[in-house]
Specification:
Blueprint: H1 2-5, H2 10-21, H3 37-41, H4 43-71, H5 77-103, H6 111-118, H7 121-135, H8 139-165, H9 170-200, H10 205-227, H11 230-245, E1 254-255, E2 258-259, H12 265-286
Antiparallel strand pairs: 1-2
Helix pairs in contact: 4-5, 4-7, 4-8, 5-9, 7-8, 7-10, 8-9, 8-10, 8-12, 10-12
The structure holds fe (ii) ion (2 copies).
One fe (ii) ion binds next to helix 5 and helix 9.
């Protein structure tokens, strides 16, 4: 296993990440970058940005807990060292998205209460399902849950948000792009490393498949809450109106063959769900796990 793991060494991480794409950034973006005036000044837009960023902090806190928790469960030294780099990546993600909450005007003293107020209960369940495996030092399900399910989801969500924000909010888009580069490394590790372990312990498969099905369900329920309940539908429509009133053309937001700016929230939800579930199926197939279709919330 030594060979491919050189791509997951601390040396590689240093050169590509802190000394590479994160050079000259502060909290993941240009030091002087600011949130757009519309986001800061329009209360509805600001609240929506806080709500979305809260889910990112919740997800990244779970990733931090999982990647650090898995270090002592890992069966070899190379995996421990990779997970140490991932732990620092995840801690950084927690920090930069928390910093975005501060940039959006959340007072430091109100951080935890803000998170509690806006966190999606289905996302919390999603995290708990994974952390139960980690707490039991159940390494293989833990890595599949973290590096394939959680990060597969994060990867697509970040990419979609990046497409939506690239022109409207370059500050947030830059924060996301460094995170996407990190997540790509993490997902790659899950896939490349865990396949051989599953071959040695095929009796683990049913447990992993159950976990995948359960986490996928909570993920879909989270998406459904974010996009298609009536409150969020109305909010989307109102934000679109205000953005139009604020003037300027709505730029194209191309992602997976669609212009996000033209989609209804329910269409965005379908596109995101389909994209992530397809990814799960492909990546799980590569490590010898049969994808289980989740119940629809
Ligand atoms: Fe992360
Ligand atoms: Fe990650």
């Amino acid at each position: 296993m030594g060979d491919f793991l050189s791509g997951y060494s601390i040396q590689y991480w240093l050169e590509s990440c802190p000394q590479g794409y994160l050079m000259d950034t502060e909290y993941g973006r240009a030091p002087d970058a600011k949130e757009p005036a519309l986001v800061l000044e329009d209360e509805l837009m600001r609240e929506q940005a806080i709500r979305v960023t809260t889910q990112l902090v919740v997800g990244e806190r779970c990733a931090l807990s999982a990647s650090s928790g898995l270090i002592n469960a890992a069966p070899d030294e190379a995996a421990k060292r990779f997970l140490a780099t991932q732990t620092l990546d995840e801690a950084r993600h927690v920090e930069i998205f928390t910093q975005r909450l501060y940039d959006l005007g959340v007072a430091k003293a109100d951080l935890e209460s803000t998170l509690q107020r806006y966190e999606n209960p289905n996302l919390v369940k999603f995290a708990e399902t994974l952390l139960e495996k980690v707490d039991n030092k159940d390494f293989i399900p833990g890595v599949v849950g973290q590096n394939i399910i959680l990060e597969g989801m994060a990867f697509s969500v970040f990419e979609m948000m990046h497409a939506a924000n690239q022109q409207l909010n370059p500050k947030f888009a830059q924060t996301l792009s460094g995170t996407i580069a990190d997540e790509r490394r993490h997902v790659g590790f899950g896939e490349n490393y865990i396949g051989a372990l599953i071959q040695q312990q095929p009796e683990k498969k049913p447990e992993i498949e159950r976990m995948q099905q359960e986490m996928s369900y909570y993920m879909l329920a989270t998406f459904s809450d974010q996009f298609s309940n009536r409150e969020s539908q109305e909010e989307f429509a109102e934000m679109k109106k205000r953005a139009a009133e604020a003037g300027g053309e709505v730029p194209k937001q191309q992602w997976h063959g669609a212009n996000l700016a033209e989609l209804e929230p329910s269409e965005m939800e379908d596109l995101l769900s389909d994209t992530v579930l397809k990814e799960f199926r492909t990546r799980l197939g590569r490590i010898g796990i049969e994808y289980q279709t989740p119940a629809r919330p």
